[in-house]
């Protein structure tokens, strides 16, 4: 019997499960998310797959999971009651932040609630300078008093972040030892273990976030492990990290900060792998689900990553200036831009009489009106149903029945009549507004980063991504679109492409041209040894390990850094000059200019990524899906393509029908998604089963 690797991705509306056999057999399941207990939906989904296929838990070799549990704990302020111990004079760093405002000139804007209330922030009289020298020793009795104070307040976790601890952790280690003596079972973190880097607010915030969600994530993973064992699934559980690599459940329970944005990462990694097989080095990924739409950039075959991001700040449109709306998390993460536009986004009319779509969403419960589960407000899914893009009897392979009459009624009453528009025109307007909102996300990762989207291929997936892809690409003057197999479950499928990765970073602030190369070699070798030790603990042999190095740098006096890869091997004077030149080139690509040779480049942080490589291809070349496509349904239906074109009788096809190239309009229906190919667009199926769409 074939062994199966399982990918599980939880979204705001659906939980997606993919079983991939080592012989290429593919089983998929899409079920509604259980927002009160996400683990329950996973267990129910596994039961459904076992029932449909006759498989058992013994067939599962590995479970890979993208989860929103940590981010939800922050969004809902349901993390652990956390205390913070910090240096005297730095008690209010979390509230002062870095003076960034998400809305300029808005005097009514309020900062998000603190994850640690002020009375739970305790200071100690100690001081270490930026060189790691002790200027004011920490007395042991002060460390113990600080711990006792927080324990008396009934905290559930303690974070420790002292000034310049990245340069010398001796005082943080003293407090850590005091916590372990007085409350050995209490979750706790010190900043040196979490983020040994400069910038006090970023380091404090990251340490607090990690501590705040640690008990929540640990309980969730323990519950999920029990549920898997109950299904006789004893295979290892791996978690997708925000950076696009996998980590073990044990490591995720200790450093949950790395899985805060794990959900969207799987699709980007899967797109990167498929794009490599198609010889497409430059792509923009577009993932639209039921609640949000996300975009990311893959350039020269490499995923783009940000050094920091904000969680809980609403939509992430990627502006470098308008930040500060959420909680700062300084960990590597796939550079995503997100907007509140999904199939469940509510369509509404604002006070000025203008049509809007989102960011409010009907979510999984009650969902769009056409689901007939209690929804009362029109959504994008209702609009797409009215326009003829969605088959009312085919969503999720027919498991979800849509009520077109209810969609027509709510749109007519709430949108069309108040605006004096025909029903089709109102629905098409909502569709276009949703598309324009999502174009903001694509521009945030392309034009706002100095990249021209016209030179990239749009890689569209998610349950709703292929419906909007062609219209968005046309607006952006992008000419090529790829829709991968199982697009509605592609974030789950993408999990199966990922490798285990461990990221390490450390501040080593030096002017590059004055730095001794051997000092850098020694620092990188020490971090590489940490990565090797962790990969060995994960079960990888030396032949299965790959160590990559990078440097965060800026021109002296700048605030933000750019990341530049560092070649393997020992550094010498020539390699140092090459590294400085590589930074200048990256600065010019990102900002459109570079400084002259007299301007010194400053090294800020060094990074190491330890990657565990598989002993066989992650995904077989030939895939055989067990899902049956449209059968016995209508061969065509009326679809609306705007005022200039109007209603057209549009062929309804399965993916396999595109083995013969077709010109639009046509609609491709699958178990998990629908793809709309507009008039005059050319579409075909490639050898990997991808839909390729070319726009004139």
Tell me what the structure shows.
This protein is an alpha/beta fold and 696 residues long. Among the domains are: 1-66, ATPase, nucleotide binding domain (Nucleotidyltransferase, domain 5, 2-Layer Sandwich); 74-217, Rossmann fold (3-Layer(aba) Sandwich); 500-612, 2-Layer Sandwich (Dna Ligase, domain 1). 30% of the residues lie in helices and 26% in strands. It contains 16 helices and 36 strands. The strands form 9 sheets. Strands 13, 14, 15, 20, 23, 24, 32, 35 and 36 form a 9-stranded mixed beta sheet that branches. A 7-stranded mixed beta sheet has the order 12-11-4-1-2-3-29. Strands 6-5-9-10 form a 4-stranded parallel beta sheet, with helices on both faces. Strand 23 (457-461), helix 13 and strand 24 form a beta-alpha-beta unit. Helix 2 packs across helix 7 and helix 10 (380-386) packs across helix 11. It is globular and about 80 Å long. Residues 315-321 and 628-632 have low confidence and may be disordered. Residues 203-503 form the Hydantoinase A/oxoprolinase domain. It holds the Pfam family Hydant_A_C. Residues 5-181 form the Hydantoinase/oxoprolinase N-terminal domain. This is Hydantoinase. One of its GO terms (molecular function) is 5-oxoprolinase (ATP-hydrolyzing) activity.
List the helices and strands and how they pair.
Layout: E1 4-10, E2 14-21, E3 25-32, H1 38-53, E4 60-66, H2 69-75, E5 82-87, H3 93-96, E6 121-124, E7 127-128, E8 134-136, H4 140-152, E9 157-161, H5 170-182, E10 188-190, H6 191-194, H7 200-230, E11 237-240, E12 246-248, H8 249-254, H9 265-277, E13 283-288, E14 293-299, E15 302-303, E16 305-306, E17 309-311, E18 327-329, E19 333-334, E20 336-339, E21 345-349, E22 355-361, H10 380-386, H11 404-419, H12 423-445, E23 457-461, H13 465-475, E24 480-483, H14 490-495, E25 500-511, H15 517-537, E26 545-555, E27 562-566, H16 573-591, E28 601-612, E29 624-625, E30 636-640, E31 647-653, E32 662-663, E33 666-669, E34 674-677, E35 682-685, E36 691-694
Parallel strand pairs: 1-4, 3-29, 4-11, 5-6, 5-9, 9-10, 13-23, 23-24, 31-33
Antiparallel strand pairs: 1-2, 2-3, 7-8, 11-12, 13-14, 14-15, 14-20, 16-19, 17-18, 21-22, 24-36, 25-28, 26-27, 26-28, 30-31, 32-35, 33-34, 35-36
Helix pairs in contact: 1-7, 2-7, 4-5, 10-11, 10-12, 11-12, 12-13
Domain Acetophenone carboxylase-like C-terminal: 518-688
Protein name: Hydantoinase
Domain Hydantoinase/oxoprolinase N-terminal: 5-181
